Amino acid sequence: MLEKLDLVAVDVDGTITYEEPYIHLGAVKALRSLGKKVPIALVTGNPFPIAYALSAYLRPSSKVIGIAENGGVVYLGERHRLLGDLNVMDKVKKFIKDSSYGKYISEDSKFRYVDLALRMDPVTQERLIREIISKGFDVEITTSGYALHIMPKGVNKGTGLLSLCEELGVDLGRVAAIGDSHNDLEMFSIVGLSIALPNAPREVKERADIVVGGPGYGYSLPLAIKVLKSLLSSP
Fold first, then answer.
1. Would you say 44 and 52 are in contact if contact means Cβ atoms under 8 Å apart?
2. Model pLDDT for residues 61-78, shown as the tens digit of each residue
3. Which residue in 11, 13, 115, 184 is the catalytic one?
4. 99-122: per-residue pLDDT in tens?
5. pTM score
6. Does a structural domain hold residue 138?
7. Is residue 205 part of a domain?
8. What pLDDT score does 110 carry?
9. Are residues 76 and 65 in contact, defined by beta-carbon separation less than 8 angstroms?
10. CATH number of the domain within which 109 lies
11. Are 130 and 41 in contact (CB under 8 A)?
């Protein structure tokens, strides 16, 4: 359990949204309330321009900080840093664009610096994963529940959060993370406290320190915020 809270890392899709990718205003209100006491970083699979805009306009706390593209981009104010082997990603992108899988590339991929996102049915997804593995591409493959994400090996939300904390001078043991999907697990594994929402898959719930109640998605985020506020108010 956390003894001190210096940073909160919060997933976006499925965590501060409805089941559909629309921002839940009640979740934002709860984040801003907590953000008056502790910095909040949005940690998302969304492209860097979208992630940065969310941080700047939703302004969950005074600092515009966060992680985009599942760890591929770390931003702190106007500075941002790309993580991972981009040459490998160029090869993967070429393979997919030249194949029948090109039609599944997400419409926002033209704004992505590192991560490649594809939206497809589960059967096609499994077939693509097998082909990528058979070709020996040195990449990470994960799912956010909204898309399949392909990233350079060693890049994930956990490594992104580690990089951000090094920039901020924050001890990971004093960080809390809130999420709802498999791509949040690496982040959960390195922080002092991990909180899963009720809409998370079973594996994610099992590996979280706390699972809050409620109907899930942005509806349940205020309950997670309440847990963190209780930690801040305890002696």
1. no
2. 999 999 999 999 999 999
3. 11
4. 999 999 998 888 999 999 999 998
5. 0.91
6. yes
7. yes
8. 87
9. yes
10. 3.90.1070
11. no
